[in-house]
């Protein structure tokens, strides 16, 4: 694995960013835009995934990084749960729902795999190999 020196280089952060943008577009392009509390809640949860990956990385320690990755994984699950509500409220169609549900499941799996990898390492600082 190549040395990672910036959280922006992490594939899981890049994927979390892409999915947060997807949620944002749903929040402005569908009737979700008028469901203010729900809109804000799902946007916050999806943004929390990428933000916790970044914050954990910047904490300079493996233990804290793993803790923040766990929080990010929880936020991915929260977003996935909210996607069911978005679908049930008919803000998105079944195809869009299925794609995003699978994407969030895959992201959760990747975060979990990264946590497992870090559990086997004893990194110090912000350079992860």
Describe this structure in words.
With 129 residues, the chain is an all-alpha fold. It is 74% helix and 0% strand. It is built from four helices and no strands. Helix 1 (11-29) packs antiparallel against helix 4.
Summarize the structure.
This protein has 129 residues and is an all-alpha fold. It has helices at residues 11-29, 36-58, 62-88, 94-119.
Annotate the secondary structure layout:
Elements (H helix, E strand, L loop, with lengths): L10 H19 L6 H23 L3 H27 L5 H26 L10
Q: Major sheet: size, sense and barrel closure? A: none
- Mean pLDDT, to the nearest integer, reads 93
Number of helices: 4
Residue runs with pLDDT of under 50 for 5 or more positions: none
Number of strands: 0
Estimated share of beta-strand residues: under 5%
Distance between the termini: 6 Å
Task: Tell me the series of helices and strands, N- to C-terminal.
Answer: HHHH
Looking at the structure, what is the overall shape?
Answer: elongated
Q: Helix proportion of residues, in percent?
A: over 70%
Secondary structure class reads: mainly alpha
Radius of gyration: 15 Å
Relevant terms:
4 helices; 74% helix; mainly alpha; elongated; 129 residues; single chain
């Amino acid at each position: 694995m190549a040395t990672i020196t910036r959280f922006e280089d992490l594939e899981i952060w890049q994927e979390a960013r892409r999915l947060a943008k997807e949620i944002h577009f749903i929040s402005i392009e569908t009737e979700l835009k008028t469901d203010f509390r729900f809109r804000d809640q799902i946007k916050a949860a999806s943004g929390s995934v990428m933000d916790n990956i970044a914050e954990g990385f910047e904490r300079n320690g493996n233990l804290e990084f793993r803790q923040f990755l766990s929080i990010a994984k929880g936020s991915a699950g929260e977003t996935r749960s909210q996607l069911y509500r978005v679908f049930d409220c008919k803000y998105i169609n079944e195809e869009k729902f299925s794609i995003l549900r699978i994407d969030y499941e895959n992201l959760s799996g990747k975060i979990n795999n990264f946590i497992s990898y870090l559990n086997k390492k004893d990194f110090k600082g912000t350079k992860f190999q």
